[in-house]
């Protein structure tokens, strides 16, 4: 026994006492462990079946308690989306009586109460995805009388429940509707997805916009209430309560003041269009809007399927976010990309002079400058200033293109065109950069009546000035200009700024790393930026009529894209400000808005004025529209 | 006091690297049991919290594993130091205990209405967890200083006061559970040190009189000594199925959970601890989770690991070469066994709910690390006795 080995420093009088006391300590521990094991045996083995039955007790009902979604705020904390509570009447079709006549009678009584016809009830049921136990919201915002009547006569309305629900509220109305997106019931398909694990039918998730992308933060955690019910299913008492946890708040990078300026300028113009205002270094979007727009609160009320269809298919496609889903030819705003390709691939040098006679013969086809102007011998920077098409036609003619790429195409890809930008709202369009392979394939498939011949160099000439098959979204163009402005970093555009928990503590900063770095020589960059600056600030520049009086130098490019015969041209403007130390890029497009300087540039100017806190006045938009412009 | 010095030389030097990782002097069974417990904790957290934190299903697992790794490293480090030197630091250690608890009391952050935490740069730390093991070390040292002479009642009272001061401060936080553990450590240290039976009898009688008097006097004067919820918790186990919504609710649900585990557990069908709102299911009620998910086999296995641990810990008391080591080991046995038994008892409806964690199984950095430090001390006492035995 190891008892022989006693500590040598122990007082002799204590030796026996120590042995006894260690033995007592040991005995206590042994007794305690034995008790625990006996109790475990009794609970789990002897009484296990009893407790298993209790745990699976059907007399206990778990009611899900929905959490309020987090709020969405602008960058200064102004609330763009929050919640209101409503009492909703829900119907679970699977819990309706099995008997046909009974079911009809109940629905008829319900219809009388709510002022809904049988048809309307059926339509609403059909508008909700069918799924076992899926609740159909029949009505939101019940009268007190109806509410109490239903609560008191619960037994005669099986399958009907009244629940308190949170519904989105939009204090700023339609402002930034496309960006904010929508929250709605999870669909049966989404329920099966890994990222929605643990959710149940009837839960609300983000379905579009930043609501979709940041859903995991905004969603919160559902709580539950465990209620003991008697044999008739009537609640007897609450057994437990796990409160729902509200979602975190989302702070956007959006400046709601600037957003308002941009949206109202578009609305005032009255034509479909879009704008993007983005920090050139971080990709943080300070404003992004699309016109026409829609009122997101429409989706917070229950509607029939046909009402939804009518709302979504109104003229002008108000649900489409033109800023990141609308792909268009960009007209001359494409020229900086062509210029980068030509200078970087050594087709020309900054001082190469072309004689712009006003037209150019490409293999028998004569193409003209817009407005037929002739600019004489000009270099790159001047060509950008006056937006000489002939100069760029020449580049398009000499740039190579084959297979899936080409000199201009490859640079367009590097600038992020033709690829979907990884912005934090879903469904951003990739646009299209035409290549020989693409055009030949579509031609052979006969799927597009406009593609009526295979690729030829004329397509490249068109691409050089942003005409023809090319499709670019305003967001893509803004991003390409940002890369030009910041020295070649292709930023990842983002609307989310940070996630803030309920205590106001930032739990996550949203700073997506840049997509890539372009290798553009400083010389190329400065020549192009200088050309854009002259276009905006020097008399004779394409946007001088609008931007000439701006308090400091900016670099901007107009674009006027042909949209087919009989249609007004599409107006574009993309501007980097300030020229000396670029901070922001603003890109505006207006469908059928005519010359870039007429429609798009004045809108861009008012956005810049708001951003730089400049009082409007002097030579602004309206005067410029009459001045016209030479593209 | 001087007599202990010569026996302090540690084993002769070998290669530095081997020396650093040398596990030969450690008690292998104790080491295996402690690693088994932390591994079982991580395993349980993994299977029980997989569906919980939607954004980060491995939240608890990653953290607990990290605490375990840090704890094991600290345990091995501590096992290599000469624990008898800690005696010289007793005043400093004791000062640190009282100071840190008082500091938390003054400036710590409030978690669920009681202040137990300090925000360190990387995580929150709960000094009262560390206080448990440090009290074993320092109180044993104070006792050891006085052990040459027979104990007078005055001496006993002074030593008792030393132990009850930090316990009282912790109680004020208010953290009833840790306070009780500190009292248990104090009494066990005095018990192992050989305080005469008569003193214990006198103390017991005084306590009963005082508590009764204070309770009656207090209620008469309208002073509540225990917070309402503490009272509820302490007494509700006496009448567990009165009303599901009161203090016994958790115990009730825990019993159903454990019982429903039957022989081999319900695995992923474990709804009782999943849905059933056991509020502290990663910490205080994790044993109920084990009972439900893994059944009698799992729960009894955990109890078996604890039994191994306590057996080896008590064995350390018997082979220690210094009486100081015996007393320290006694305190640590009390600390580990008391927490484990009270916690498991609470999960099984045998003990009141006091917010005492299950050592190495409950989720929590301070608790895991504090426990490993204590085990490191036991290993150090063990290592030195072995080293001596080989001469």
Rg of chain B (CA only)? 21 Å
Counting helices, strands and paired strands, the structural category of chain A is alpha+beta
Give unreliable regions of chain B as ranges. 1-13, 240-247
At the first level of CATH, what is the class of the largest domain in chain A? Alpha Beta
Main sheet of chain B: which strands, in order across? 1-2-3
Number of helix segments of chain A?
23
Distance, first to last CA of chain A = 104 Å
Topology:
The complex is a heterodimer of chains A (631) and B (391).
Chain A lengths: L11 H35 L1 H8 L4 E6 L6 E2 L5 E13 L8 H15 L3 H10 L8 E5 L3 H9 L7 E10 L7 H4 L2 E3 L2 H4 L12 E3 L2 H5 L1 H4 L4 E7 L5 E8 L6 E4 L3 H14 L3 E7 L5 E7 L13 H8 L9 H4 L9 H10 L9 E3 L2 E4 L2 E4 L7 E3 L1 H7 L2 H10 L2 E2 L2 E2 H8 L21 H10 L11 H8 L9 H13 L2 E2 L5 E5 L5 E4 L6 E2 L4 H16 L6 H4 L7 E7 L8 E8 L6 E7 L9 H12 L9 H7 L4
Parallel strand pairs in A: 2-10
Antiparallel strand pairs in A: 1-8, 2-3, 3-4, 3-5, 6-7, 8-9, 10-20, 11-12, 11-25, 13-16, 14-15, 17-18, 19-22, 20-21, 23-24, 24-25
Chain B lengths: L15 H6 L6 H22 L9 H21 L10 H18 L1 E3 L2 E6 L4 E2 L1 H19 L7 H20 L3 H17 L4 H25 L6 H9 L12 H12 L10 H5 L10 H34 L3 H25 L17 H26 L1
Antiparallel strand pairs in B: 1-2, 2-3
Descriptors for this entry?
heterodimer; A: 631 residues; alpha+beta; Penicillin-binding protein 2a (Domain 2); Beta-lactamase; 2 domains; five-stranded antiparallel β-sheet; 23 helices; 20% strand; globular; disordered N terminus; disordered C terminus; B: 391 residues; mainly alpha; three-stranded antiparallel β-sheet; 66% helix
